[in-house]
Amino acid sequence: MSRQRIVLGALVTVLAAAAVFIAGCGTPPSSPEAGSTPVAQEQQLKAVVTQFDELLGSVRPARFYGKQLTPVRCVAYMKGRDAQLAHVAAGEALAQERSGWSTLAGLVRQEQELGHDVYPTAWRGEIAYWRVLSGGGDEYVVRAAVLETMDYGRWDSARGELVSSRSMPYDEAMAWDYTLRRVDGVWKVTAVRGTGLSCTRGGSGLHPDSA
């Protein structure tokens, strides 16, 4: 083989390698979530965890204020709660948190602690601790603690409305490991595991649960 052919062959090889390198550099890395930034996705996960936690608080429907919780109303309350829960939970988490008589007992106990004709009206949660432990694509495991605030008010039967509305913030929250999975395009909590850790409002990081 002549020296000229050797040089030409080497030149072709170098140019081919350069073309491959340039093509690779010019192609943006594929995103694990097409059409969604990582920040937006994390906000979605946080929203689902917060909504799931809020639904664990007991709140009777407004149409039942000032009324006795008859068996029919109890069933209606539990069915309505389960329907809301199904929007943010699936699988093991949904099965574990579905309403039962213990859920109803928790509602009655909460109302008794507040006093006659005083009802919890809403639970609001805020993320106090958040860490993504693992995952990608359609499934993540996160460790989170959600601080809760209970809104409540007294039912004035004469006026037919709630009065003296107030809020009660809780200053400690337990941390849980949440498994989140995208089900039919919607993020849902599918499993929850205890960690034995908690955090306090205004504190830094997690510490062993004091309960």
Describe it for me?
The chain has 211 residues and is of the alpha+beta class. It has two domains: 1-30; 37-208, Nuclear Transport Factor 2, Chain: A, CATH 3.10.450. The protein has five helices and six strands. Strands 1, 2, 3, 4, 5 and 6 form a six-stranded antiparallel β-sheet that branches. Residues 1-37 have low confidence and may be disordered.
Q: What keywords describe this structure?
A:
6-stranded antiparallel β-sheet; 2 domains; Nuclear Transport Factor 2, Chain: A; disordered N terminus; alpha+beta
What's the quick description here?
37% of the residues lie in helices and 36% in strands. It is an alpha+beta fold.
What topology does this entry show?
Elements (H helix, E strand, L loop, with lengths): L2 H24 L11 H18 L15 H15 L5 H7 L3 H14 L3 E19 L2 E18 L4 E9 L2 E12 L2 E15 L6 E2 L3
Antiparallel strand pairs: 1-2, 2-3, 2-4, 4-5, 5-6
